[in-house]
Write a structure and sequence with these properties.
It holds the Pfam family GreA_GreB. The chain is built from three helices and seven strands.
Length: about 130
């Protein structure tokens, strides 16, 4: 990891906490990803000034190039109501979305997907239009 813990904008942190609060704990893949995200939120570094937020860190609406077991993908990380698989807009509540939020360019992370645990490498992060 480039930074010692995930990095989030304070407003986005509060929004994510509100989104995951009603999701119950269970053994399903989705809930295990949310449980891991809950744990990461406990130690997240929070920024209140957007100008100070590192530009290489994934946040809501970031456009991200990732190397996955399925190949290199370009996705945009969005709120659940804005997700659209055809447009490659991935909800932060999906296994991939919850794996990426708060991580930085060049980070390699191990994450559990429907077909098993795999390494994901963050190749590029941008904050412009998709």
């Amino acid at each position: 990891m480039k930074y010692p813990r995930i990095i989030l904008d304070k407003k986005e942190y509060e929004l994510i906490k509100a989104l995951i609060h009603p999701i119950s704990e269970s053994t399903s893949l989705m809930n295990s990803c949310i449980s891991r995200l809950r744990e990461e939120l406990k130690t997240a570094e929070l920024f209140t000034n957007g100008a100070d937020f590192p530009q290489d860190v994934i946040r809501l609406n970031s456009i991200v190039d990732v190397n996955t077991p399925f190949g290199i993908m370009k996705i945009q990380l969005v709120l659940p109501e804005n997700s659209n698989s055809e447009q490659k807009r991935i909800s932060i509540l999906t296994p991939m979305g919850s794996a990426l939020i708060g991580y930085a360019e060049k980070d390699k992370i191990m994450w559990e997907f429907p077909n098993g645990t795999h390494e994901v490498e963050i190749l590029k992060v941008s904050h412009s239009q998709f």
